[in-house]
Amino acid sequence: MTTLQIAVIGVLGLIGIGLYGLLIARNLIKVIVALQVLVKGALLALVAAGLASGKLNLGQSLAVMVIVVDTVVAVIGLALALQVKRRMGTLDIKDLSTLKK
Amino acid sequence: MIQALILLTMGLPWLGGLAVWLTTNKHPRAQHTLAVVFAVATGSAALLLLPYASATPAIVIPLGGLFGDLTFTPDGLSVFLAIIATVVGSLAVIFSVNYMHGDKQLGRYYELVLLFIGAMAGLALTGSLLFLFVFWEVTAFCSFALIAFNNDDPKAVAGGIKALIITSLGGVGLLSGALIIYAQTGSYQIAAFLERAETLPKEVLALVAFGFLIAAAAKSAQFPFQTWLPDAMEAPTPVSALIHAATMVNAGVYLLARFFPAFEGVAGWTTAVMIVGLLSALLAGLMALVATDLKRALAYSTVSQLGYMVYAIGAGGVYASQFHLLSHAVFKALLFLAAGAVIHGVGTRDMRQMGGLGSRMPFTRTVFVIGALALAGIPIFNGFWSKELILEAGLHEGSLWAYGVAFFCAGLTALYTLRMVYLVFFGKPRSHLHAHDAQPAMKVSLGLLALGSVTTWLLAGPLSELLKSTLPFHEFHELRTGGMIQEVITQPATLAALAVIVAGGLLWWQRQRLTGLTRMLQGLARMATNSFGFEAINRGVIRVTQSTAEALRVTQTGLLSWNVAGIAIGLIVVLILLAWGK
């Protein structure tokens, strides 16, 4: 098994876990965690794509940038979750949705 | 220069709409002034386009990929329609200064009207089918939003939704036609398609031709879609005059005229166009005869006159149809605006409550009668010349039965027009209405349009020359104004048509003696009030659309899990398609 194959399996696994988490999670914190897993899958995909196309440097530098941005996303997401908990008293996204009411 | 003028013709009304929005509803005077200034400037820019008319694209913006080039081609037909849209548009805006005085949501009104004027100019001037469709839908949206302008009135909202659904249905025909053309020729350019139309497979061309016919029929309120236009009369009257009489409903006729050279050879297409036009002219004429609401009667008459234009195209008289389009835009805008002055003056639209208003609103009566005479096709007025040209085209090209129906409709038009004029302005007052005559700004618009109704037929020669010199794929015969006068006057058919028109008129004066006949026709009248059952069909279409939308509402849960599931399924479908494509 080559490095690339391992990386692709890793990508599919991470994205699968992330999507599954987003599908079933009802707690906002869990949703954010699932989103992080999903993004990590995308990160690995970037590096794998760099490896496959022979531009490993490009893939890695893109990945580093996404790590920085993604950290900010995670922090803001958690801060928002905190505010939601304080104001609404719940973290269940099914209760938070008002579109259907 | 020409590029600047084209951009001004489309951009000025949009800028104006933005400016009106920025002034906010707290400054109604500024809003009126801005709207009038921008509308009149747009009209002037469009008029200045005239000397630059040519068949080569003036502006080409490459958008790349699937979208092709966004081109603007100021050929005769385009400039002609753009001028009608912007000039009648500016007159309608001037009229609105009095008509919409004191409205709380003036900003929304002017924004939509100006957006419409710009979109209509774009629809006329663009040379790309894709953007023709885009502008087509923008005008449909403006039409919907302005019909439903009084959005606390359920009737207005229902009318707006009806118009939106039916015209969108036509839009599907246009879009699929455009996509088929793109798939076949690899380009959205109208000129490229017209050039290569004959090399396309016959079945494909037929598919496009009938798709465009559906689009045109829905937009121009032709059979079997004619029922949305009367319901659109809930819109403020200047909007009815502008969108539902003079401009947007002409887009369908424009589409047919534009693509006539390509579809001429499609088996059965011209016959289908003729039948659609004649049925609309006949059925709507009968409905106009029994309508009691002044604006609805005018709307039926619009459908009927548009039917004439469509019939003329089916009979090969593209020039006659465009000439009648010009005449109709002028006199029908005049009639609608005059009707608006009446409605504004007395506060009702029901003709049964009017009567004897002529002595109290002499100016409105004068201009309304001028418009009515033009509509009825009385000599000297512009409607006479264009209608004669259509009848002549029908006599030379189409079959005799079709000519007979068109002939009968000419008499019918005279009859319902006279009935309308009589019910509103003459006879004894049937109720105590407080009436006041047209106000100054209204008089400006009405006076100019009345002048146009008497004089625009003099443009027959120049219009023919303009179309002939800039449309390479159409065949036009040279027609000078003097020649047209001679031709029309010396034709025996003219005399026959005049006789029918006069007979139609006389029938109204003799209506008391015709009670036996009227009783016989009562069944027909009842059918006419019910729109011959097409109302039910159109209502069915709308009900199906709305219940489908209600059924699909359950998919909008707002829950993250469902949305993610949707994304994941979409991703899988795309991946499968990609793998399959390889």
Question: Care to describe what's here?
Answer:
The complex is a heterodimer of chains A (101) and B (582). Chain A has 101 residues and is mostly helical. Chain A has one domain (3-90): Helix Hairpins, CATH 1.10.287. In chain A, 84% of the residues lie in helices and 0% in strands. The termini of chain A are far apart. The model of chain A has no long low-confidence stretch (mean pLDDT 88). By secondary structure, chain B is mainly α. Chain B has two domains: 2-529, no CATH class; 541-581. Helix content of chain B is 74%, strand content 1%. Chain B is built from 25 helices and two strands. In chain B, strands 1-2 form a two-stranded antiparallel ribbon. Chain B starts with a helix and ends with a helix. At the A-B interface, helix 1 of A face helix 25 of B.
The helicity of chain A comes to over 70%
The portion of residues forming beta strands of chain A comes to: under 5%
Could you say which structural class the secondary elements and strand pairing of chain B correspond to? mainly alpha
How many domains comprise the coordinates of chain A? 1
The biggest sheet of chain A amounts to: none
Please describe the biggest sheet of chain B, giving its number of strands, its sense, and whether it closes into a barrel. Answer: 2 strands, antiparallel
Structural class of chain A: mainly alpha
How many DSSP H or I helices of chain A? 4
Main-sheet strand order of chain B equals: 1-2
By DSSP (H or I, 4+ residues per run), the number of helices of chain B equals 25
Whole-number count of domains of chain B:
2
Q: How much β-strand is present in the residues of chain B?
A: under 5%
Question: How are helices and strands ordered from N to C of chain B?
Answer: HHEEHHHHHHHHHHHHHHHHHHHHHHH
Radius of gyration of chain B: 24 Å
Q: Could you state the oligomeric state of the chains shown? A: heterodimer
Q: What is the β-strand count of chain A?
A: 0
